[in-house]
TrEMBL record:
Entry protein name: Sulfate transporter
InterPro entries: MOT1/MOT2
Matching Pfam families: MFS_MOT1 (PF16983)
Keywords attached to this entry: Membrane, Transmembrane, Transmembrane helix
Residues spanning the membrane: 83-103, 140-159, 166-187, 199-220, 371-390, 514-536, 542-567
Domain of life: Eukaryota
Annotated stretches, region: Disordered: 1-26
Length: 615
């Protein structure tokens, strides 16, 4: 080796590593590598590669997690001619794709519920009152103007940073109560939808709902023994409950794209990988073609955190077979053996197909069940049976047609000044409290709680609760989404904590899930736009209701967990205040009073949401 090569190698070793950024803020992660002038296309290409790399069954399952809310509201509005379904679907899908590229979290796009409720309630009231004139109804023009004005106000709050004032005024316990109330409201809505069905009066019945509920309980059972799926970061283990990208370390087979180097004490090793060193967290649970897990990043592994490993070295990878951590001893220390030759591609494919065909009956799968895919397939099967056996009197628009439906329309063509007035007072004003609390503050707090490994350190140091996705970013997203797309035929949309909780519960962990969902919506709007209403209306209410119940209960659980964290933080602040005043010998923490006060505020908020049907 020449002196020039030695100098270059030393310079490469002395060069400081690129800055590390949370994965939820991917534009910062790539900014230091993007040249001026070609940065946008390079970021887009790298983000597309990331989305494809994160594509898995869990992401596909999670993408369907908010359909229990999206489909009933969208179909009801389209049936009553409050929106045009094809452009509404197309622009909702485009919004999904854009948000999935911007944020690496499953940020859903849902109809604004308060505006939808006003529009649907106006239909029932106008149909029962013969004296109401057509000009006084909350028609499609009023829905469009309500969405535009709501977007303008939310955008103003975000650009001027006034949303931080709202967040400062609203206590965190109110946000927790809001999540509990909205979750209970979603669950009760799903149960009421199922109650309207008959027990065995057709394919869509209560019996189907009960069957789906029992199967979902089987598929979603995890942590029943008190264990928690663990991911290991640079500072130690990161505990994460539920499914997704963190798998069961004690019962899974792992493939490591690197080698294991033991430390001096023999109890910990370092995994070295060729992947980007900024991704400092091990992610288990991505299913590869051979049906096992892949461990992709570099970190230090301690058998106290995971389990001791028996190492088997092949020509290209190092595989590990995990044993319980309690059995760690000198006899179970890592040892190198020779792996058997790999099987043929056809055998591996047949094994994967067979495992996937039988995996839905496995109560203890190596990876979490893609429950969203299972339920959606059940719904599609019964929808196909319903449409295949439908007659001329069924009410479905058959035969199905392809294309023919415009995806871009001029929604402001017949709008009158009265529509603007009615849209603001009857649509925008009732929607603003729900948008600011649930679609901005609550959804940012939920993302902050669900994805702690993606928090921005600069925001965490300021003790903010929106370190994954900021409130200003969500305000700008909701504002532009309605201000620009509602005139083109989009329905009023927003982000919601219920949809995020539902997608997370069904397995989504990245923006890949919402990108896939957005592409699916756009595909239906473009190729099946003429029959989109028939297809969506044929999906069984029993299946959609169960999906809505699961999403609601997930949001309730997250809200309760955040409430417990709020109570603990107030206890810690009270303890610090007592210690700072030097009155520790005379004062003590009244834990009961702190618990009663915070729980009362949260439960009153949840009760208002449930009783007044705001959720």
């Amino acid at each position: 080796m020449t002196n020039h090569e030695n100098d270059s190698s030393v310079a490469a070793q002395d060069e400081p590593p690129p800055p590390s950024f949370p994965r939820g803020r991917w534009w910062d992660h790539h900014r230091h590598r993007s040249p001026i002038g070609g940065g946008a296309l390079r970021l887009l290409r790298e983000r597309t590669i990331d989305i494809y790399a994160n594509l898995s069954l869990s992401e596909l399952s999670g993408s369907l997690g908010d359909l229990g809310t999206f489909i009933p509201l969208t179909v009801a509005l389209a049936r009553e001619r409050k929106i045009v379904l094809a452009p509404a679907l197309f622009w909702a899908g485009a919004s999904n794709v854009i948000t999935g590229y911007i944020w690496d979290v499953p940020m859903c796009v849902q109809p604004m519920k308060s505006i939808a409720a006003v529009a649907l309630t106006d239909v029932s009231s106008s149909s029962s009152s013969s004296s109401s004139s057509s000009g006084a109804t909350f028609d499609a023009g009023s829905v469009t103007t309500a969405g535009i004005l709501s977007g303008a106000v939310v955008l103003f709050l975000g650009v001027t940073n006034l949303m931080e004032v709202v967040n400062w005024i609203v206590p965190m316990t109110v946000v927790c109560g809001l999540q509990v109330g909205v979750g209970l409201r979603l669950a009760s809505t799903g149960i009421r939808d199922v109650q309207k069905l008959t027990w065995i009066g057709g394919y869509d019945c209560i019996t189907l709902a009960i069957t789906c509920a029992l199967l979902s309980m089987l598929w979603l059972r995890d942590n029943e023994d008190g264990t928690t799926r663990v991911a290991v970061g640079d500072d130690g283990p990161i505990e994460r409950e539920g499914g997704g990208e963190v798998g069961r370390a004690s019962s899974s087979t792992i493939i490591v794209d690197s080698t294991i180097a033991s430390s001096d004490d023999g109890r910990a090793g370092t995994l070295t990988s060729d992947d980007d060193a900024n991704d400092s967290m091990m992610e288990m649970g991505r299913l590869e073609n051979d049906g096992v897990h892949r461990l992709e990043t570099a970190t230090t592994v301690n058998p106290q955190w995971l389990s001791s490993c028996e190492v088997m070295t092949t020509t290209s990878v190092t595989t590990t077979a995990c044993v319980p951590a309690t059995e760690w001893s000198a006899s179970s220390a890592p040892r190198t053996v020779t792996a058997s030759p790999p099987t043929s591609a056809s055998c591996r494919f047949a094994r994967v197909v067979w495992n996937r065909a039988c995996c839905c009956l496995n109560p203890f799968p190596p990876t979490p069940h893609p429950v969203g895919i299972y339920l959606f397939l059940i719904g599609c099967i019964f929808a196909g049976i319903t449409l295949g056996t439908a007659n001329d009197d069924s009410g479905y628009d058959l035969p199905l047609g392809f294309f023919g439906a415009p995806i871009v329309i001029n929604a402001l063509r017949n709008v009158t000044p009265y529509n603007w007035k009615q849209g603001f007072f009857q649509g925008t004003l009732p929607q603003l409290p729900l948008t600011t609390l649930n679609s901005v503050i609550s959804v940012c707090c939920l993302a902050h709680a669900l994805y702690p490994e993606r928090r921005d350190p600069s925001l965490v140091s300021k003790d903010r609760t929106d370190a994954v996705v900021t409130r200003r970013e969500v305000c700008v997203s909701v504002g532009l989404m309605n201000l620009l797309l509602c005139p083109l035929g989009s329905m009023p949309n927003c982000h919601g904590a219920g949809g995020l909780a539902g997608q997370h519960r069904f397995g989504a962990r990245h923006g890949t899930s919402v990108v896939v969902l957005g592409l699916l919506k756009m595909f239906i709007a473009i190729f099946l736009g003429g029959s989109a209403l028939t297809l969506l209306d044929a999906l069984p209410v029993a299946v959609l209701g169960i999906m809505l119940v699961i999403a609601g209960l997930e949001l309730v659980g997250t809200g309760v967990g955040m409430l417990v964290e709020c109570i603990q933080k107030e206890k810690d602040r009270t303890r610090d205040r007592i210690d700072a005043s030097g009155s520790g010998d005379r004062l003590s923490i009244n834990s009961g009073e702190i618990l009663r006060k915070n729980t009362l505020i949260a439960m009153v908020t949840a009760g208002v949401i449930v009783v007044d049907k705001i959720g």
